[in-house]
């Protein structure tokens, strides 16, 4: 049970990216011209808040994979970089199966992650489908390119196959 709780907390934390009110100004500086919040949700496990996430798009009031997206996650737990990387890899594999580029993509994302503490905010911004920038508490940790990156990485939280259909629907504003 403890291992299951740890895995859920880590997986949830990987999916978490949220900023407080100054977030809109940050999103503009990150490349979204007219950020619009589509939805927000808090993931809870056995009543404990794991993270709060918010999804923004650029100048639209509906979810569309073809539009720029920014996912913000505010962590309510401390999580190591290694756990974020492993959880991301596991979720990508669960959703997509073992694709030939899984290890290459995982290595790129590992370079983006940092250890997070309670209250930290990771923001993933994808202005183009094959690129993404990640920010931790407003400081850029990386800019990466990979085929289909937006849909693959953000799909961990936003796809029909995400771990939490409720959370995914709330983030997409449905």
Form type: globular
The CATH class is identified as Alpha Beta
C-alpha Rg (nearest Å): 14 Å
Give me the secondary-structure category.
Answer: alpha+beta
- The helix-strand sequence is HHEEEHHEEEHH
Spatial separation of the terminal alpha carbons: 32 Å
Number of strands: 6
In the CATH classification, which architecture applies?
3-Layer(bba) Sandwich
- Tally the helices: 6
Low-confidence stretches: 1-22
Report mean pLDDT, rounded to a whole number.
86
Classify the helix fraction into a percent range: 25-40%
Profile the largest sheet: 6 strands, antiparallel
CATH topology heading: Chalcone isomerase
Beta-strand portion reads 25-35%
Number of domains: 1
Spatial strand arrangement across the major sheet: 1-2-3-4-5-6
List keywords for this structure.
174 residues, alpha+beta, Chalcone isomerase, 6 helices, disordered N terminus
């Amino acid at each position: 049970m403890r291992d299951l709780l740890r895995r859920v907390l880590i997986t949830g934390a990987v999916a978490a990216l949220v900023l407080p009110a100054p977030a809109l100004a940050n999103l503009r500086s990150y490349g979204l011209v007219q950020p619009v919040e589509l939805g927000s949700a808090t993931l809870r496990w056995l009543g404990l808040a794991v993270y709060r996430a918010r999804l923004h798009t650029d100048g639209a009031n509906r979810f569309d994979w073809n539009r720029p997206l920014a996912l913000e996650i505010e962590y309510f737990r401390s999580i190591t970089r290694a756990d974020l990387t492993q959880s991301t890899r596991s979720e990508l594999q669960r959703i997509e199966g073992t694709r030939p580029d899984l290890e290459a993509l995982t290595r790129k994302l590992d370079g983006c992650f940092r250890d997070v503490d309670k209250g930290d905010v990771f923001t993933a911004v994808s202005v183009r489908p094959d690129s993404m920038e990640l920010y931790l508490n407003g400081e850029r940790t990386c800019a990466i390119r990979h085929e289909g990156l937006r849909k693959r990485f953000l799909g961990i939280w936003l796809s029909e196959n995400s771990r939490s259909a409720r959370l995914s629907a709330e983030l997409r504003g449905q």
